[in-house]
Design a protein that fits this description.
With 209 residues, the chain is an alpha/beta fold. The protein has a single domain, classed as Rossmann fold. The protein is built from 10 helices and 9 strands. Strands 3-2-1-4-5-9-8 form a 7-stranded mixed sheet, with helices on both faces. The chain has a two-stranded antiparallel sheet with strand order 6-7. α1 crosses α4 and α6 crosses α9. The longest helix is centred in the N-terminal third of the chain and has 17 residues. The chain is globular. The termini are far apart.
Amino acid sequence: MHTGEQYHNFILTSQRDLLVRGRFQKMALDLLPEGADVLDFGAGTGIDAKAFAAKGHRTFVYEPSEAMGEYLAKYCSDEIERKSIVAVPSPLACKVQGVIANFAVLNHFESHALLFEELSRVVHRGGFVLTSMLNPYYLSDARYAWWRANLLNLLLRGHYAIDSESRIHRFTPGAVARAAEPYFQLERLTPRGFGLATQLYMFLLFRRI
């Protein structure tokens, strides 16, 4: 189990993760109107929150992990003092234009229906939820026995769980989209086509109806 500091240092030295984070942040910032509030759901150590606050967006952060939350408080201490970053005990404690959930936060959920129902009370109509999730079609994972063993589950059920301590779940975009209804509609999937076979993460943009 990583401490918050260990995770923070690792993620900031991984070139692949830095590139993914950069693309995710740009997509989210392009969606946010000037000065709009945003919720960082599963904020980790506050890397994304700090970037959004720097762009003038008051950023609410929800992070259930004590280790991550403690490091976030140190890393974002200046922004927290200025209230450009605000820690909340529950996502329901804020009302925002957009919710971001980066780096597989939603892969820790067995089902998303209740989550999207709750987020519908957080996001203004016309707002969005943007999440990056582990891509179940990523062909480099085919070298692992768990990927091959669960291929039929993916095709028939749209999801499966990896039998490990963390119980990470993999979902097809369609399965997540069905869970988001009737509150959110899947507006954009990135990448598409052949890109789904070559990218570890997929970005899903949901629009609040």
